[in-house]
Amino acid sequence: MTRTDRVLTSAIEAIGNTPLVELARLTKGMDGRILAKMEYLNPGLSKKDRIARQIIEEAEAQVALKPGQTVVELTSGNTGTGLAIVCAVKGYPFVAVMSRGNSMERARMMSALGAEVVLVDQLPGSRPGQVSGGDLELVEMATRKIVLERGAFRADQFQLQGNQRAHYLHTAAEIIQQSGGLFHAFCDFVGTGGSFAGCAAAFKEYNPLIRCFIVEPEGAAVLAGEQATNPNHRIQGGGYSMASLPLLRPEHVDGHLQVSETEAIRTARRLAKQEGIFAGFSSGANVAAALQLLKGECRGSTIVVLLCDSGLKYLSTDLWDSTSSFSE
Ligand SMILES: Cc1ncc(COP(=O)(O)O)c(C=O)c1O
Fold first, then answer.
1. Residue 282 annotated to the active site
2. What CA–CA distances, in Å, run from 294 to 14, 29, 36, 190?
């Protein structure tokens, strides 16, 4: 039964079961296909609703989270929005701790959903819209302090297995079912690594020949072993220049791809204009990486990507500003 077949008991049940679409207009004339999972159709407009639900329900089952206890998390906005939805329905106070460098749509949306939003200033020299690993360290310190002060449960997306399990149990399982398992590769722009870890684990279990690629911003490809020369890139939600991510399993990584900010932005704009898909920077990065694969080592293949969040979350940025330096 899918989420559209019956009356649901709450918005939490509306999380997941997103459509998988072929990007046939974008790949016209190319040898191969791209199948894109429309994660921006989740209630909080991103794939992170899935992990919010999984982490909170696992914590409830393990009695790590008690009725009425405050939930806190460091977020670039999407996990926080998912947690705000799950906490609103279940009656937990929620505090989202976010860098001031992330787009303001996110803070407004979380507040509207009842969250207390704590904004942390960026490092001197960092620019709004470009959150670096250093900026995130400041958010991490503020988060730890609030957790201690409030005796809160931390929905720690970088550490808790519920993050990758949400994608292992649901996102990946849906993709395998929707595609009939007929795909050859998966590439994913990494933040916490939870989506990559969960999907790659499930795909390899289903068919070890499915190749899984990590996507990073050009100039911040530290997982590929490079020095970060541009940690303050525009691709929000990942590419934090953290050399080790606890959820990633190296044996599931078949290769590394890099996407420039310009490529991510141009591809997000092409997705909107050619496919009618209004998604964010990282979705543009994922599709740009899949196009690279189709032109290169995965010519003739079918590649799966996630469309991580909605373009609505970036209306205040230059993503949709055709007069910006990124216009075609
Ligand atoms: C818009 C967006 N794209 C990509 C990612 C990266 O996903 P993951 O943390 O599963 O690696 C995130 C994570 O917050 C995100 O918000």
1. yes
2. 33, 11, 14, 20
- C-alpha of residue 29 to centroid of ligand 1, in Å: 30
Residue 241 gets the label, from left (phi > 0), alpha (psi -120 to 50) or beta, of: left
Where the chain has pLDDT below 70, the residues are 1-3, 322-328
User: What is the Å distance from ligand 1's center to 190 Cα?
Assistant: 6
Closest Cα to atom 1 of ligand 1: 237
CA distance 270 to 243: 31
**Distances 37 to 95, 218, 306 between C-alpha atoms, Å:** 29, 24, 5
Which atom of ligand 1 approaches the CA of 188 most closely?
A: 11
**Residue 109 structure tokens:** 């949306």
Q: Is 324 a catalytic site residue?
A: no
pTM here is 0.95
Q: Are 100 and 128 in contact (CB under 8 A)?
A: yes
Q: To which residue do tokens 């890139």 refer?
A: 233
Residue 226 to residue 237: CA distance in whole angstroms? 20
